[in-house]
Amino acid sequence: MPGIGRRYARYVAIGDSSTEGLEDPDADGRYRGWADRLAEHIARVQQGSLSYANLAIRGRRTRAIREQQLAPALALGPDLATVFSGTNDVIARRFDAQAVAADMEAMQRALIGCGATVLTFTLPDLTPVMPLARLIVPRITALNRALRDTAQRTGAILVDVAAYPVASDPRLWSDDRLHANAAGHARIAAALAHALELPGLDKGWSEPLAMQPPSTLRQRFAAEVWWARRHLLPWLTRHARGQSSGDERRPKQPLLLPVRAPGLSPDQVAAAHDRATDSGI
Q1: Cα–Cα distances in Å, from 170 out to 122, 174, 225?
Q2: Which of 45, 65, 138, 186 has its CA 20 to 30 A from that of 198?
């Protein structure tokens, strides 16, 4: 694992809607997400000297990410990369954990082979968030087992978020129950930053939230009806038509751009970016 002194010049994120940052809107109405937040953590530590690209596209399965995003990611020459996917695979009609893991391993090996530190993480059990998720628990369990084995073989840094109950707390998930909300994205970013041993980050991300009174049966039933109408039925309709939320969409941020860390002015970020480019870090 890289030490505190390790610096990164080019961070590239590949993946699906989670990496794109869905359900974590910023002040401009765009999506922020854990990848953006991780880039900001790193830029803050390095005083702005980080370039960042995000090639993620919502709705993509792991095979499509490998076929469509890996080559462009390698072309950017990253020294840090995040590779996360699997949600769209486990909810698909057909699922093969070993095939997904093989694609993940190929991506990890390719990125590590070009000199990048690679980060990834496991999928949490969504049953407390979405009762229907109990139907795919065996798939998630099989995929996480395969992902752990894959990371051991490739040397990628795996954050096992599934091992922490807080990852399944509904308060960290959005109304659609498939994407983290702003608080959830912040926790994922903190977990990844801690895995990189960035200064000022500890395991606070894994601490449980405060207890809250349980909801009543009536409240739970009303919540399930609202969710089914608002999210489940439109999703079923779209998939019955062979449509995806990612159809006709482009990568979130295909070019390496300097990251503006909170607390730094645009001029400071530009100057740090120029120093990093000139020094080749």
Answers
A1: 17, 8, 17
A2: 65
